[in-house]
Amino acid sequence: MSSVLRSSRLLRLAAAAFLAALLAGCGAALRIAYNNSDVAVRYLAHEYFDLHGDQSEAFKVQLARFHAWHRGEELPKYAALLENAARRVEHGLAPDDVTWAIASVRERLKILTGQAVADATPVMTMLGPDNVAAFERKLESNNAKFAKQFATGNERKDERARAKRVRERIEEWTGGLTAEQEALVDAYVASLPRLTQAQLEDRKRRQQELVSILDTYRGKPELAAKVRAFLLDWEAERGPEYKRLASEQEARFVQLMVDLDRTLSPKQRTAAVERLRRNAHELRTLAEEGRRRDAPVRAGEPAGAPG
After folding, report:
1. Which candidate, 165, 179, 180, 188, places its Cα nearest to that of 249?
2. 132 contacts 216 by C-beta, under 8 angstroms
3. How is 24-67 classified by DSSP, letter by letter?
4. Neighbours of 250 (CB within 10 A)
5. Which residues are CB-contacts of 111 (< 8 A; sequence separation ≥ 6)?
6. Distances (CA, A) of 29 to 68, 71, 112, 147, 230
7. In principle, which of 77, 174, 198, 277 could form an S-S bond with 242, CB 3.0–4.6 Å?
8. Phi/psi-derived region of residue 247, left when phi > 0, alpha when psi is between -120 and 50, beta in every other case
9. Over the stretch 192-228, which tens digit does the pLDDT of each residue have?
């Protein structure tokens, strides 16, 4: 699962990356990755914005606040989400179960966006023209890589690559797929609307809108509110063609999950359920570790002190 970091999206999409890793990770590796994720996020912040001096220190402080909030508030909710998903997989998936999962992840990301922008505000107010220029250069580089990886111009090659990625993601949960299941994945990929070019064009358009906001409101008190509104409406403000194609693709994905569920062997279903429940346990462990670590500090804080 991929992750990117952009502008005040640094914290929001760091959290999205946390969520993706948590949904796919397992055991000690998950805990190590999560506990050290702030280092990786600080590195990416510098890569995207070339932060320096007081900016770096402010980002470090705000990221620590965000990580503490995420561990204490969000991880238990992720655990509950995974436990719920495990029960649904155990009993067999209906379309409503898949749409519930998609909507649940979107809901958590929306909560993350609001919190991330709030925590990123002190850093946003410090951004200068050099930071915005560095950000724009990084976006251009990322778009070139995206086009090279996902839009080669060879449709058959791109289709095979997409099918391979989908199979690998599913196998992380179920173990190896049967020939019948691989055929379902291949048919799903072949049926997808040609979304990549529309996605790239829409991505570039929205990126330029964000750069414009940063340029126009840089150093002004309304910057955070403008960025927050932009990020919360990220999907709603997609271009009409991309929105139509994305909606069609999502509907096909929901059907694929239902069709695959009907072909799962008892061993595959058990593997998926156990993986979900194991991850839920790891998330609760991570949240509890945070509570134990922070308890002495919080006990000495005056009422209303920030966590």
Report:
1. 188
2. no
3. H--HHHHHHHHHTHHHHHHHHHHHHH---THHHHHHHHHHHHHH
4. 13
5. 74
6. 19, 16, 23, 31, 34
7. 198
8. alpha
9. 877 777 888 888 988 999 999 999 998 888 998 999 8
At 218, list the tokens.
């840089």
What token pair was written down for 37?
Answer: 């994720």
